[in-house]
Design a protein that fits this description.
Length: 419
């Protein structure tokens, strides 16, 4: 037995020495195995494990171009930019016609903010292979960063033609179209995006927003409704649904959706304010009052608080609640004593309860703050005339008439002939 074993060993050694028996096919098969393993790991997003597999493939087969290229792509996804670039350049040295390697170089340069250099690499990649959608896409990214928006959009379109199912290409094109204010183009691209992904809530919302911007309120309402079916907590969809309804004259709907927007705390102060305006137009006094008071609470002395106070006071004026209106405007003027709307409206309220001195004081302040409008002069003139000061009053009435105030023109002939 020993003699037989020794003879076998001697034969194997002789074959190895003569080159008739080789370990290279075994190594080659193992390299292929690790390459395939790496590709599988890469596709599943396990980049660290994929990198190790590709490195093993390269160790077994030094100039394994496919493994080197895939390693560079993996390192790119691992944010190892220098290593990715080094391996992509190595792949190019081994095969100068390898388009994907030039594309990797371009992506690295984008990450480094070197957009002009990136475009050069993508140009070469596309020159070698016009079927690489990613090369067109990333060249579009580089051009967009250089402000070449039209050229960027053209590249995104080419990427879409090569791969119509990739939402990334559409979404990037939408960003560029937004910068170009190409609203009709945006809507067309959202049509495609929704076709690819009918459950994309944001796409429905965004398409609705741009339809709203183009005054297509019915179309906007339909899209906001679809967004809300998919997400009934989407505050911005409620809010713009309310705005679309208001623009479309559907005030009951508008008030409802503004209230829903406020419930999910999306722009609560503006939602309450707009609900209040809708109720005012519907002459629903109590609902308007409640909404405007809620706006004041929600805004906490912000910019909408002022508008809410003005409209809340106007609501009381409409209902002849003059003392209440004075109270509301006085509260506002404590924090903003230069608000001429509040001063003028309070003056009107004072005038209505025959407090002419207070009315004149507020109107003087209006004029002093630069509100030299016919309505101010007319109302102040009326106060003076009601106190039998025709000379002063008629001076104001004539100034209002010169500014086009029709009632002032009528008064000139009635009260101010001799002044």
């Amino acid at each position: 037995m020993k003699k037989k074993a020794i003879i076998v060993i001697i034969i194997v050694l002789a074959l190895l020495i003569s080159g008739l028996l080789s370990v290279k096919p075994i190594k080659s098969n193992m390299a292929e195995k690790w390459l395939n393993e790496g590709i599988m790991l890469y596709d599943s997003g396990r980049y660290e494990n994929a990198a190790m597999a590709f490195e093993k493939a390269i160790n077994l087969k030094k100039n394994n171009i496919e493994a080197i290229l895939n390693l560079s792509k993996t390192q790119l996804n691992m944010q190892l930019n220098a290593e990715a670039l080094q391996n992509a350049e190595k792949a190019i040295l081994l095969n100068p016609q390898l388009a994907e390697a030039f594309s990797v170089c371009g992506e690295v340069n984008i990450k480094l903010g070197q957009y002009a250099e990136a475009i050069g690499f993508f140009n070469k990649a596309i020159e070698l292979d016009t079927s690489i959608a990613e090369a067109y896409y990333y060249r579009g990214v580089a051009k967009a960063n250089l402000g070449e928006l039209e050229a960027s959009l053209a590249d995104y379109k080419k990427a879409q033609l090569l791969d119509a199912t990739n939402k990334k290409y559409l979404e990037s094109g939408l960003i560029v179209r937004t910068r170009l204010n190409d609203y009709s183009g945006i809507i067309k691209d959202y049509n495609k995006l929704i076709e690819l992904d009918p459950s994309n809530t944001e796409a429905f919302y965004q398409r609705g927003f741009f339809k709203y911007s183009l005054d297509d309120f019915e179309g906007a309402i339909a899209d906001f409704d679809n967004a809300l079916k998919l997400d009934n907590k989407m505050g911005k969809a409620y809010y713009y649904r309310g705005l679309s309804s208001a623009k479309n004259g559907k005030l009951e709907d508008a008030a409802y959706y503004f209230n829903e927007s406020a419930k999910v705390d999306y722009k609560a102060h503006e939602s309450f304010f707009n609900a209040g305006l809708a109720y005012l137009r519907l002459k629903k006094t109590n609902d308007a009052r409640k909404a405007l008071e809620n706006c004041i609470k929600a805004d906490n002395k912000g910019p909408k608080t002022t508008d809410a106070h003005i409209n809340l006071g106007a609501l009381e004026l409409m209902n002849s609640n003059f003392e209440k209106a004075i109270q509301i405007y006085s509260a506002l003027l404590k924090t903003n004593n230069k608000n001429t709307d509040a001063l003028f409206n309070r003056a009107f309220a004072y005038s209505s309860i025959k407090k002419t001195g207070e009315a004149i004081s507020d109107l003087d302040k209006c004029i002093g703050l630069g509100r030299n409008t016919p309505d101010v002069y007319y109302l102040r003139g009326v106060q003076y005339i009601s106190r039998s000061d025709f000379k002063t009053g008629c001076a104001d009435i004539k100034q209002a008439a010169e500014g086009g105030h029709q009632e002032a023109k009528n008064m000139v002939g009635t009260y101010c002939k001799n002044f």
